[in-house]
Amino acid sequence: xxxxxxxxxxxxxxxxxxxxxxxxxxxxxxxxxxxxxxxxxxxxxxxxxxxxxxxxxxxxxxxxxxxxxxxxxxxxxxxxxxxxxxxxxxxxxxxxxxxxxxxxxxxxxxxxxxxxxxxxxxxxxxxxxxxxxxxxxxxxxxxxxxxxxxxxxxxxxxxxxxxxxxxxxxxxxxxxxxxxxxxxxxxxxxxxxxxxxxxxxxxx
Length: 204
Ligand SMILES: Cc1cc2nc3c(=O)[nH]c(=O)nc-3n(C[C@H](O)[C@H](O)[C@H](O)COP(=O)(O)O)c2cc1C
Description:
5 helices, 3-stranded antiparallel sheet
């Protein structure tokens, strides 16, 4: 009887794992934060595109990496000018974010197409996006093809040379600050918002 009880409890606790095909990757990934990357081409045409494959690789010095297809005006502009801005859109900008992902010709100013406002950057040539909450001005360090099989994909690594944000987001409480940012997250065509505060590094 005791043995049976133990077996039932054990069986309940055991989580069954299911193998997946690699094509079902979206079931394993955690949604990624979305940035709007603003760039400019050699003819001074402004471009914007949403990017989720963005990650910090070092905080001191401040360095980030981006995963990009070569089939993007964003990639071509970064390759030509070596500068770009990572702007953080809020969840209330979702429709405008989608407009910046429209496949428009490179001659089209995407600030006009998405009805967004360019403001001069502090250091780099591409403008910041006024409607976004935070801005990271970046200078390219290197661009590398990912692999023989993924020839069309590159990693762009860049140094962040200037930071700015909406003044009313300057809070000592980081939790409140993130709440006010209302960042946008993405996984395979679906958007999410940030969940709530659940604890800090001191928790054991
Ligand atoms: C939310 C979201 C995130 C995206 N993230 C990436 C990304 O990280 N890398 C990439 O190459 N394309 C990404 N894309 C696709 C490009 O944004 C899209 O192809 C866009 O039209 C490219 O614009 P461009 O040619 O003006 O650069 C994403 C699209 C969306 C909607």
